[in-house]
Amino acid sequence: MEAGEFRRAVARFATGVTVLTTRIGERHLGMTANSFVSVSLEPLLVLASIRRDAHFHAPLLAAGVWGVSVLAADMADVSRHFARRAADRERDQGGDDNGLGGWAHTVGPHTGVALLEGALSVFECRTVATHPGGDHTLVIGEVVHLEQWRDDAAPLVFYQGGYLTPAAPAPRDAT
User: Fold this and answer.
1) N or C: which terminus of the chain carries fewer CB neighbours within 10 A?
2) Taking the CB of residue 175, how many other CB atoms lie within 10 A of it?
């Protein structure tokens, strides 16, 4: 099998879209990721898969803390921004913008990582384990804080190289 064939087959699996964030000192870093999954309820664990040659890889491992912002369907521009190489983003922004491209965010109360405003939900994590995974590193984090911010929007979904726009969820029955 070829890598291209594998990629085309995997692209048929629809995924949610997140932006992962970390910080080194006062500098925030972020990257778009659709390789984010829940792992365990006891303790609360999640996993993200990060390419070893990604700009985000070394800072994430060094920081040991990271955030996850689960993107809403109206946040495709945010996803596209953080999917670009960090050097290209900074060049287009005219220099240092603290790494977030001007996107509105709040700072997580437990880790100090950026959490993007408008997200469906957000998580703050502390790395508890890393494992080699081919050209990626599997990073397992314990969730130290989470919030659900929006019930009024559908998720941003990635499928076959593009974004899908699912219908907004129906209001939940309060009973």
Assistant:
1) C
2) 3
